[in-house]
Design a protein that fits this description.
Blueprint: H1 21-53, H2 58-61, H3 84-93, E1 99-109, H4 111-124, E2 130-135, E3 138-146, H5 149-159, E4 167-173
Antiparallel strand pairs: 1-3, 1-4, 2-3
Length: 183
């Protein structure tokens, strides 16, 4: 018979001085969650009391969609209704960078003649904006806001049917108006 030497090791268990430390974290988490849920319900109660003061029931005062069957994810339209003085103030505060471009000059003469010529141009119903520019001592009428020379020359051919002496000039133009893309 063969003898096998066996050694028995004793495992030592250490005593945890804080057996409830996990329990303490759970209790703190529970208290925090109860505090948050209380504040959420408090806001709901304050809404009910505010609507009650206005003489409306919470159901009547609830925010309702103007279009209840509106699909989620589709582009919408926002209509802003404001006083005209606010709109004018907002428009006046916009600052556009001056953009260098081209215009077509159709007239150069006195101020009185320029007014008459401007009215004649407007009666034609052409789609170009007209601008009055003072070139001392005379007044010039220029039309259009063209970004490049090729575009200006293309429209110059149309204008020459009505104003044969029209010509292109380099000028500062209004920024181009971009149309919205429908999706």
């Amino acid at each position: 018979m063969k003898f096998v030497k066996m050694t028995i090791t004793q495992e030592r268990t250490t005593f945890d001085p804080h057996p409830f430390r996990y329990m303490r974290n759970i209790i703190l988490l529970t208290i925090i969650l109860l505090g948050i849920s209380h504040s959420v319900f408090s806001q709901n109660d304050s809404l009910k009391s505010a609507l009650g003061k206005l003489g409306k029931s919470p159901v009547e005062g609830a925010i309702k969609s103007e279009t209840p069957n509106q699909n989620v994810g589709t582009p919408g339209k926002v209509d802003v209704k404001a006083d005209s003085s606010i709109v004018n103030l907002e428009k006046g505060s916009r600052k556009f960078k001056e953009t260098k471009g081209y215009r077509i000059q159709i007239f150069l003469g006195s101020v009185d003649q320029a007014k008459v010529e401007r009215n004649k141009y407007l009666s034609l119903g052409l789609p170009y904006s007209i601008y009055s520019k003072q070139i001392v001592p005379e007044q010039a009428l220029q039309i259009g806001d063209f970004i490049n020379r090729m575009e200006m020359e293309k429209h110059l051919k149309i204008i020459e049917k009505h104003y044969p002496k029209a010509f292109g000039v380099v000028s500062f133009i209004e920024p181009p108006k971009f149309s919205q893309v429908k999706r």
